[in-house]
């Protein structure tokens, strides 16, 4: 692959092989009558050219009027723009669709076999077009289409962790940032192709810079990494650069957001305070909002990380998070902008798990309507498996956003294959109150002002994500954000077939590999009983989070000579009691606590016997090495695809699996040796490496 080229991911549009299906597609889609009246409609026409040419082997003929000489055609437009659409659909039903919703229908119009793609908004036409092309790429019939879809979640955002002036990505493992701020607002073709990938799965918002707008000065880290930081994007001289990106994403119905530093009134505005209750600060934020919206009228809003990991916040001024969020919300309100206020706040509690609920639940109902409190799926920090945050379901009068990790910070950093969709489904299907008083997590984000935020974006690597299989996480996030009721198997099948083709052996093998990666990673990197933070943190100058280092985190795993685990129960710090009664009772008792979270909630003796007769320590040994064995099995499964997958992707993934197997062994040995050092209990299978 030449260096200036990059992968098409799931938008490959391989030629249709089935002759009958191809004939049907050509009848209804070789001729296209599409609207032209908005930026999004230019994107629609471009995608139809690309997609239909790939699928049908010929570029479609684009018409400004319905073609009367053709046996059929594809019509894309709103009922108000096109007679063929208005004649073919229930106009009232289409106009009632939510923003982004679309309707696809096969019809006969004046003797021609047609497919109609329509919507109430131009953004809906983009999503409807991608849905039709996905339908065709999967080889599905279009002779009897009658599909209406609306996004379940109004807001479906990707949070980049890109450091704009260094072009590095703090939480991404695919090379430099794709955003070249030195050359903006000039545009690269890659921006449009990235927008295509996002729009194809229904993403409607993007935060283009790192939530960590001020990197803490860890022994000169700021000096080593450069003086410029993300907070400077709010300076007038840099805001114009945002206009280029906003125009590229606008064509695909995607609104642009900025991550901002809470201390910007001082850092950018020259004030002597950033106190949210100071009228000068409120006026500064309002003036800055005016400036941003003058440049980008459809600007989405601000993402804020405050009072966490060295970032300034309202606590600096004896204010609370309502004060902090609402001063920004008032500035954005005249423009319909939104503040996404992260709940990842810790530092005043010995155990960070406790702090989010204690901080935010008492503030329920006090945030402005245009504030979304963005909460990570678990209380720690994107660990391979965590309990669902107790904040969900217990702030009914506050707009909440679910923050999920697309990138693989603690799941192998895109060296290891780890498919996150099963993890996310576990979170989304979680019942926040099994007594029947609450709702599942997935039901909390259907109202205006709520939604999903996925952390981590692609980079400059030709495959976008650093690991070809990691593309499935970006695809899966978008599909679940659009419709959280989709099954894992459905999402996986879509991605595999669009990415690797329809060979049954390839589809089955890649599907099985993806579905088994997460359990393998949980096994060798945690021991599978709910332990957290078993990784090496790194030096003061550079975090690692990749190698094993459980000895660094005694406050999280609680290992002592007498046992392991953390008492987050009624006998400990009371974290379990933050949940509604039914969940609190379940977690509080080691006999009813789910095994996969047992040591998260309980400190247990090493030789405490579990329900299968094995001890805690033996189960940890077994799970670690079972994870290694599974990684080895997945590597062998991938190797069977040689000759069935193109050489470039087969070699890349095979070499990544070689590294994953080696690293899995290192993790299992390091963790098991750590468990043995504390417990002095030998492994029944003799696998633990011991110092002579």
From TrEMBL:
Span of domain Alpha glucuronidase N-terminal: 9-132
Coiled coil among keywords: no
Gene Ontology annotations for the cellular component aspect, listed alphabetically: extracellular region
Molecular function in Gene Ontology: alpha-glucuronidase activity; xylan alpha-1,2-glucuronosidase activity
Keywords for this protein: Carbohydrate metabolism, Glycosidase, Hydrolase, Polysaccharide degradation, Xylan degradation
InterPro entries cross-referenced by the UniProt entry: A-glucoronidase_C_sf, GH, Glyco_hydro_67_aGlcAse_N, Glyco_hydro_67_C, Glyco_hydro_67_cat, Hex-like_dom2
Residue intervals of the Glycosyl hydrolase family 67 C-terminal domain: 465-687
Residue intervals of the Glycosyl hydrolase family 67 catalytic domain: 137-464
Xref: Pfam families: Glyco_hydro_67C, Glyco_hydro_67M, Glyco_hydro_67N
Gene Ontology process terms (BP): xylan catabolic process
Family: Belongs to the glycosyl hydrolase 67 family.
Protein name: Alpha-glucuronidase
Protein source organism: Halorarum halophilum
Lineage: Archaea, Methanobacteriati, Methanobacteriota, Stenosarchaea group, Halobacteria
């Amino acid at each position: 692959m030449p260096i200036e080229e990059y992968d098409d991911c799931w938008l490959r549009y391989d030629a249709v092989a089935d002759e009958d299906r191809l004939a049907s597609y050509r009848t209804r889609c070789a001729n296209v009558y599409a609207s032209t009246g908005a930026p999004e409609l230019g994107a629609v026409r471009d995608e139809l050219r690309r997609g239909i040419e790939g699928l049908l082997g010929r570029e479609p003929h684009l018409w400004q009027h319905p073609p009367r000489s053709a046996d059929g055609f594809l019509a894309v437009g709103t009922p108000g723009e096109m007679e063929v659409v208005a004649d073919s659909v229930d106009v009232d039903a289409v106009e009632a669709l939510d923003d982004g919703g679309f309707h696809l229908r096969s019809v006969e119009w004046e003797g021609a076999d047609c497919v109609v793609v329509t919507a109430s908004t131009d953004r809906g036409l983009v999503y409807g077009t991608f849905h039709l092309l996905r339908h065709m790429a999967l080889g599905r019939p279009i002779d009897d289409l009658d599909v209406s879809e609306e996004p379940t979640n109004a807001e479906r955002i990707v949070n980049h962790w890109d450091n704009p002036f260094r072009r590095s990505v703090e939480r991404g493992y695919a090379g430099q940032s794709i955003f070249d701020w030195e050359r903006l607002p000039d545009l690269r073709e890659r921006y449009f192709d990235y927008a295509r990938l996002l729009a194809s799965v229904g993403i409607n918002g993007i935060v283009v810079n790192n939530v960590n707008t001020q990197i803490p000065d860890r022994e000169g880290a700021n000096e080593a990494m450069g003086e410029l930081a993300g907070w400077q994007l709010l300076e007038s001289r840099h805001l114009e650069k945002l206009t280029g990106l906003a125009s590229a994403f606008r064509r695909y119905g995607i609104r642009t957001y900025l991550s901002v530093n809470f201390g910007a009134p001082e850092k950018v505005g020259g004030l002597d305070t950033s106190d949210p209750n100071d009228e000068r600060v409120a006026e500064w934020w309002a003036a800055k909002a005016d400036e941003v919206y003058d440049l980008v009228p459809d600007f989405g809003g601000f993402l804020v990380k405050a009072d966490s990991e060295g970032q300034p916040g309202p606590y600096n001024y004896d204010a609370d998070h309502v004060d902090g969020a609402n001063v920004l919300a008032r500035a954005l309100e005249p423009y319909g902008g939104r503040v996404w206020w992260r709940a990842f706040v810790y530092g005043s509690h010995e155990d960070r798990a406790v702090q989010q609920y204690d901080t935010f639940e008492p503030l329920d109902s006090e945030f402005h309507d245009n504030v979304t409190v963005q909460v990570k799926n678990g209380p720690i920090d994107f660990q391979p498996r965590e309990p669902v945050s107790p904040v969900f379901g217990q702030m009914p009068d506050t707009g909440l956003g679910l923050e999920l990790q697309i990138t693989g910070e603690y799941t192998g950093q895109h060296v290891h294959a780890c498919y996150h969709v099963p993890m996310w489904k576990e979170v989304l299907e979680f019942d926040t109150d099994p007594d029947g008083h609450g709702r599942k997590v997935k039901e909390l984000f259907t109202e205006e002002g709520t939604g999903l935020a996925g952390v981590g974006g692609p980079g400059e690597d030709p495959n976008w994500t650093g690991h070809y299989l990691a593309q499935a996480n970006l695809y899966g996030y978008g599909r679940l954000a659009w419709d959280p009721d989709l099954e894992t198997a459905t999402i996986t099948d879509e991605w595999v077939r669009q990415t690797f083709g329809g060979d049954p052996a390839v589809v089955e093998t890649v599907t099985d590999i993806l579905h088994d990666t997460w359990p393998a990673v949980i096994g060798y990197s945690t021991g599978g009983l709910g332990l957290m933070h078993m990784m090496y943190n790194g030096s003061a100058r550079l975090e690692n989070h990749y190698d094993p280092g459980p000895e660094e985190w005694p406050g999280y795993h609680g290992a002592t000579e007498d046992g392991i685990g953390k008492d987050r129960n009624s006998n400990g710090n009371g974290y379990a009691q933050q949940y509604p009664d039914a969940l609190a009772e379940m977690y509080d008792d080691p006999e009813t606590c789910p095994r996969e979270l047992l040591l998260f909630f309980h400190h247990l003796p090493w030789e405490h016997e579990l329900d299968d007769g094995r001890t805690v320590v033996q189960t940890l040994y077994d799970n670690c090495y079972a994870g290694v064995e599974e990684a080895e099995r997945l590597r062998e499964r991938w190797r069977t695809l040689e000759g069935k997958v193109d050489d470039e992707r087969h070699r890349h993934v095979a070499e990544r699996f070689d590294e994953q197997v080696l690293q899995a062994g290192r993790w299992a040995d390091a963790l098991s040796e750590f468990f043995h050092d504390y417990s002095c209990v030998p492994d029944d299978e003799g696998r633990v490496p011991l110092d002579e």
